[in-house]
Amino acid sequence: MSADIKRISEAELEEQKKYENKVKSLLAQRYRDKPLACVVTYGCQQNVADSERIKGMLSVMGYEFTDKRNEAKLVIFNTCAVREHAEDRVYGNVGALKKYKLANPDVIIALCGCMMQQKHIAEKMHESFPFVDLVFGTHVVHRLPELLYKALTRRKRVYELPDTDGVIAEGIPVRRDNEKKAFIPIMYGCNNFCSYCIVPYVRGRERSRKVEDIRREFTELVNSGYKEIMLLGQNVNSYGKDLEPRVSFSELLRILNGIEGDFRILFMTSHPKDCTKELLETMAQCDKIANHLHLPFQSGNNRILKLMNRGYTREKYLSLINYAKELMGDELSVTSDIIVGFPGETYEEFLDTKSLVEEIGATSLFTFIYSKREGTPAAEMDDPVPHEEKAKWLAELLELQEQMSAKQMKLHAGKTFKCFVYGKGKLGDNYLAARTDGNLIIEFEGDEGLIGTFQRIKVVEPLTYVLRGEKI
Predict the structure, then answer these.
(1) Going by C-beta distance under 8 Å and a sequence separation of 6 or more, which residues neighbour residue 150?
(2) Which of 135, 202, 244, 397 is least surrounded, with the fewest CB atoms within 10 Å of its CB?
(3) Banded model confidence at residue 165, pLDDT cuts 50, 70, 90
(4) Which helix (H) or strand (E) holds 459?
(5) Greater confidence, 155 or 114?
(6) 68-81 average pLDDT score
(7) Who's near 232: CB < 8 A, 6+ residues apart?
(8) Which is nearest to 209 in space by CA: 57, 5, 43?
(9) Looking at the predicted structure, is the pLDDT value of residue 3 above 70?
(10) Do residues 110 and 97 lie in contact, with contact meaning Cβ atoms separated by under 8 Å?
(11) How many CB atoms are located within 10 Å of the residue 402 CB?
(12) Which residues have C-beta within 8 Å of that of residue 114, sequence separation ≥ 6?
């Protein structure tokens, strides 16, 4: 394995367990009942997975949980730095707790996650939010017991924001949000440095978990009854490049697909630069891997893609999608991310993005107006197009995608799918929501006892973004 990756030792983890016991003892002295903790999560699935580990440690330390911030003795905001809107929400929500903190000085308010790993934001928190007790970065989540103990026993604020390339910590307890669907991070960090993206700066370099650790966690989930398991990474296609002996993402998928049990594997996120034919063939050949490919293209224009430092062309992206469709046909669901109004983008170049949307036939898109991120190369580029104009482009794109989604849904009229029922639906009071193998949402009338199971559902009416079905 790469010597550059710091893997947290058993001794370091044992030290954190000692702090867990210290916090538990301290809380028992201070409170008659178990204190409540509220963990607020922003951003991607990786942040959700981090929050599940945060809650796992808090549970061991003696906390119970609430969604009501004004009832909690500990409030942790796990933040996202990808877009300005997410940052603004954090500032607003933290500020709203000022009066609660003044009235309840024993309450601990903490912030962690990607926002906090940025120096200018950490400085703003220190200067503008003096009532925040604890701030820690993405690389020290495993040290939460120690940091929380310091916050509980010291009068001064605790800031822990090391500037490193990141670590891997195994054996952290997990308190999962769902009893049938689970997230497994398989790697952390990113080496791509897309010119608009802050992630490599706040998450560190790419580092892969060992195959045996992933397989062990995956098997435990299957044996515990989990039916839908999503593998996570900023770029899962880079998995294993830092391992010795080297293991590709395709090989990892085949290993997990071979585990006995009734489950479905999904993964997020793939980078077109590193997406291989081998991966697409693995998806087609392995029966437990969902036929869903989330492959962000961001722009359909080659000049913009080069400015973005994406490492592929429109033609390369199309060749991957076309090959995937050859292998999986209409069963394949393609979703993507798009940035509208990248610095210097013209309307004519934006039209190339619209035409690519039509060519690939995506079932859904995650579309955003470019958000300037301090510290990235794109933040220094000329950006002459006003936000109002970019908003008009986005509206055009959303209108097109609505048409494309409806077109894709019609392809499935009358078909029957094996679906994972994940929750309550929105089409009516008695409707449940399920996902097909291609990650399409299908809603049907049924009893809530079906949630968390696989069911065969026939499509009776294709709608714009969902399918209406009936249980077979």
Answers:
(1) 134, 158
(2) 244
(3) confident
(4) strand 454-462
(5) 114
(6) 96
(7) 45, 46, 49, 183, 184, 185, 186, 267, 268
(8) 5
(9) no
(10) no
(11) 12
(12) 43, 47, 79, 80, 81, 82, 138, 198, 199, 202, 203
Q: pTM of the prediction?
A: 0.94
Q: Is the dihedral of CA 42, 47, 49, 54 positive or negative?
A: negative
pLDDT band (50, 70, 90) for residue 339: very high
Taking Cα atoms as reference points, which of 461, 457, 446 lies closest to residue 419? 457
CB neighbour burial string for 267-281, b if at least 16 within 10 angstroms, e if fewer: bbbbbbbbbeeebbe
Q: Provide the pLDDT confidence category of residue 327 given band limits of 50, 70 and 90.
A: very high
Report the phi/psi class of residue 146: left, alpha or beta, with left for phi > 0 and alpha for psi in -120 to 50: alpha
**Does 265 score more than 90 pLDDT?**
yes
Q: How far apart are CA 244 and CA 214, in angstroms?
A: 16
Residue 287's H or E segment, with its range, is none
Q: How far is CA 437 from the centre of its chain?
A: 20
For 128, residues 6+ apart whose C-beta sits below 8 A from its C-beta are none
Judge whether 274 and 235 are in contact, CB under 8 Å: yes
List, in sequence order, every residue forming a beta bridge with 267; answer none if it has no partner.
231
Gap between the Cα atoms of 100 and 215, Å rounded: 44
- Tokens in use for 106? 């024993």
**DSSP annotation of 298:** B
Nearest CA among 221, 246, 230, 238 for reference residue 289? 230
* Matching residue, tokens 């079932």: 363
Tokens matching residue 271:
């980078």
Concatenating the DSSP letter of every residue in 226-243 gives: --EEEEE-TTGGGTTTTS
Q: Enumerate residues 6+ apart whose C-beta is below 8 A from 155.
A: none
420 SS3 class: strand
Mean pLDDT of the chain: 95
Predicted pLDDT of residue 163: 83
- Estimate the crossing angle of helix 10-30 against helix 144-153, to 10 degrees: 40
* pLDDT tops 90 at residue 155: no
Burial 108-131 (b: 16+ CB within 10 A, else e): bbbbbbbbbbbeebbeebeeebeb
- Write the Ramachandran bin of 261: left for phi over 0, alpha for psi from -120 to 50, otherwise beta: left
DSSP-assigned states of every residue in 131-200: T--EEE-TT-GGGHHHHHHHHHH-SS-EEE---SS-EE--------S-SSEEEEE-EE--S---TT--HH
Instruction: Give the chain's end-to-end CA distance (angstroms, integer).
Output: 49
Task: Show the tokens assigned to 31.
Answer: 């409170």
Segment 25-29 shows an average pLDDT of 97
| Rounded Cα–Cα distance for residues 113 and 44 (Å) | 11
CA distances from 171 to 126, 177, 186, 237, 298 (A): 32, 18, 14, 24, 36
